[in-house]
Amino acid sequence: MKKLSILFILFLFIALSGCNNTAKISYPETKKCDTVDVYFGHEVADPYRWLEDDNSEETALWVEAENKITFDYLSKIPFREKIKERLTEIWNYPKYRVPFKEGDNYFFFKNDGLQNQSVLYIQDDLDSEAKVLLDPNTFSEDGTIALSNLSISKDGKLLAYSTSEGGSDWAEIFMMDIETGKKFKDNLKWIKFSGISWYKNGFFYSRYNKPNESDKLKDKNEFHKVFYHKIGDPQAKDKLIYSNKDFPLRNYYAGVTEDEKFLIVFESEATSGNTVYVKELSKKGNTYYKIGDGFDYQYSIIENIGNKLLVMTNFNATKKQLVLIDPKNPAPEKWKIIIPEKEEVLKSVVLLGGKIIASYMKDATSKAYIHNMKGELIEEMSIPGIGTLYGLNGKKDENTAFFGFTSFTFPSTIFKYDIDGNNFEIYKKPDIDFDAKQYSTNQIFYKSKDSTEIPMFIIHKKDIKLDGSNPTILYGYGGFNISLTPSFSVSRLIFLEKGGIYVTTNLRGGGEYGKEWHDAGTKLNKQNVFDDFIAAAEYLIDNKYTSSEKLAIMGGSNGGLLVGACMIQRPELFQVALPFVGVMDMLRYHKFTIGWAWAGDYGTSEESEEMFEYLYGYSPVHTIKKGVDYPATLAITADHDDRVVPLHSFKFMATLQEKTLGINPTLIRIETRAGHGAGKPTSKRIEETADVYSFTMYNLGMEY
Fold first, then answer.
1. 309 assigned to some structural domain
2. 656 and 583 share a domain?
3. From the candidates 229, 371, 460, 676, which is the catalytic residue?
4. Are residues 525 and 388 in the same domain?
5. What are the CA-CA distances from residue 477 to residues 492, 504, 553, 678 (Å)?
6. pLDDT tens, 528-572?
7. Helix/strand/coil for 6
8. Is position 162 annotated as part of the catalytic site?
């Protein structure tokens, strides 16, 4: 009997060990090839090059094997299903987007709660019954075909919209009559990075040539062009409006001023900086006036005032200014300054009710000011509090407008705004299971490695104790002039309501303080971004918010690169690493899809030996060391991600699994029929979020 008891206890220990995932994981045996590239005389091995072929059977089998291990691990986390149930519960509330007006009708998007895709509604006026105009949930049974863009004609009678399948950036454009709901036969393909701008009985749009079908999710995107489509014509009859055969790696975006006087074509070769070409549509010929020279500065056309253009730019104003430009005489010395540069960063400008409303960012939060049409300040715009103002829109000759507002503990709410009275009222408020009074948000400033002060938001329950024991997630991005401003997230509640601390830091490389802040985190300054993030972690530990054993880091896309680089540079500093759809191979990123457009931020391995050595020095795939105990890692990617192609995560995780000591799990979750994130159906978002927080909380030692 005693022997049987001992055997039973031994069996129980083994069973519990399996449930707690403490056993060392046996990862798929990933084959290696002998591929070597030479950069300026330096040989660089690329043993997992074969994983770049997303069409091969070998890669498919590797993906299947990796997912099996990952989902087997996740399935053994005891509270995974409870987290999914709670997420589903709090996710299930009506969500509205800011309404807008075209012609005599109002339009808005609404999701009833758990619908895979939000639905477009129409109403005659603000008090009439809203009717469904377009329901993207009918595009596919599983919600993986999403609405990616739409444009309504200025008279409010026609709708053009684009759809994307499985999360890909590739899109198709369709058209319908708004009054009858009848869809036209028109179907435009090979659309990518395009607007839809109505003019007369058609619209301008951008597209590429038809790609090789088998490699369309991987091949480099080249020779972007602007076309004009006339309703009823086949795509083959579309008129080529603008292209440049001499520069295949440039993008073009077309727009028309509200009065249809000017066609505006924006030319870019990176994610920031552009040149603008302006054509008078009433005049025959192909004469364009050029604004800007090169791609060092950004020009955003707000609207035309007669024959002149109101332009927001960072030329001679690193935090941007508003100027009036005559396109026939566009030299900077001829510009008229309407709103000069301020201490805050100018984010957007809209014309509403005969006034200019300029939105600014101060320390990553929103402010807005009302000016007359001469640019003279009238007063500060009233907004609900400290947070993020978004979606401000209306008509330039009407007094009623709408905007959205959110913060870390303020769920996204839609407001109706009276421009003359400078006051607002709630238009649509979410009914969500969340008590904001239990939580606090603090903004602090900490010093990075070079003593630069970096802002950081810290969100947690008010009764938290600073004893170094709090599970914490540190989130960052730091690139492409993108600013991280306060916003509400349902998925984040899972972590916060169980005592976690959530932190967002505003790293260099972003746009929080203008062009200089952005430039300080690009190319040969990219290490500043990683230093800023590491310094944030050290601040949280030094000030007893958390400890290395309780700290997770999270980021997506360029933020995935951030997480990958920092977990390699300082593995002892973090317990969990969550790199989502990350750019991990810094030597080859520019060879796939739209990767070449990121060179403005990263530089490329081919442009100089100095740049190669700098990229090679932090590229996550190339800097993983053998025999190091790296943090518990869950990488996320998707088979249809043609923005940051999945090969980045494949090669990174294959290398990590090969070289890590293997004490902590190093897993990759590869979603099917999903892309970089946009358009992902609610069902997939809930499943992925449940897996991410289950993995994180489990490896931080939390209970649920």
1. no
2. yes
3. 676
4. no
5. 17, 9, 11, 17
6. 999 999 999 999 999 999 999 999 999 999 999 999 999 999 999
7. helix
8. no
